[in-house]
Amino acid sequence: MAEDDQDRAREREAEREAEIESEMERVDQDPDQVEEGSENLGTQSADSGTPRDEAEEEGDGEETPGEGSADDESETDEGADR
Length: 82
What we know:
82 residues; mainly alpha; elongated
C-alpha cells in the first residue's frame, strides 16, 4: 500500500515536471530556469509584477466616459428604428 502511494507521488511529480517543461518550451523559455519547488509556475496566482489592485487604481481596464459597450450602441440603434 505504501509503495502504491509512493509510486503515485512519483508519477504526479514526473507529470508536473513534464507539464512545466512543455509549457516553458511553448513560451520559448529555458526549462532549467524554473526554481525547484516553485508552486506558482503555470497557475493564475503567479506573480505578475504589479498587484491587480494597483493596476485598477491607475485606470487600467476602466471604460472611458462617453464610450459605451456594444450593447449600449445596439439599444440606441433599436430606438432610432422605432
